[in-house]
Amino acid sequence: MNTYCFRLVLRGVNENTPDLEDILYDYHCDDALINFRNGTVYLDFDREAETLEDAIISAIKDVESSSLNATVVHVGPDEWVSETDIANRLERKRQLVSLWVKGERRVKVPFPSPTMKLSAKSPLWRWSEVTLWLYETGLIDNHDLVYEAKFIENINSALEERNKADRKKRHELLRKIAA
Q: Which residue, of 48, 76, 104, is where some domain finishes?
């Protein structure tokens, strides 16, 4: 068994939800730290499982099977990363990451292009593309990091699609009620 650290962002609950902590504890989330920020509840897990996939899916099932009526809307760590985020995740200096980005250090394969905030001072990259680049260039040898980054990106896409469908159903129901 390994211990995996990840975050679940919840909708449908807030810091005033009655018995939030007790209910989560009763539904096997005793390995999560409950956090509140800007009206959002998120859980930082340190969950033991065979794989990251098993850990995340079991945590989502535990949260969503509880009597809270909470919905998981996002899994972290985030798939969008800045140079600073990349450095922190790899425990490397930001200056080294900057050299990779600029193609000035140990780079035969160009660093992936940023895809978000292109005109901003701190553009963002997809973590899955960065990990693949790191693996392909031999800067990391742990292919699990590549798989885990892609898994989190995919599960977030699935959660977003599920949540869009739920919003559409609620909207249609409201139209029927108003008619």
A: 76
| Contact status, residue 87 vs residue 94, Cβ threshold 8 Å | yes
**Rounded Cα–Cα distance for residues 62 and 66 (Å):** 6
The span from the CA of 14 to the CA of 153, in Å, is 25
CB 71 within 8 A of CB 60: no
Question: Do 152 and 83 reside in the same domain of the chain?
Answer: yes
What's the structural domain count of the chain?
Answer: 2
Cα angle value 116/118/123 (rounded, 5°): 70
**Looking at the structure, do residues 172 and 87 belong to the same domain, yes or no?**
yes
Res 109: pLDDT: 86
Cα distances (angstroms) measured from residue 109 to each of 49, 98, 137, 178? 35, 15, 7, 57
- Identify the CA nearest to 34 among candidates 53, 61, 16, 52: 16
Q: What is the pLDDT of residues 87-135, one digit of tens each?
A: 999 999 999 999 999 988 766 789 999 998 888 788 999 999 999 999 9
pTM exceeding the 0.85 threshold for the entire prediction: no
The token pair that represents 56 in the structure block? 């995340």
Distance CA(64)–CA(74), nearest Å, equals 13
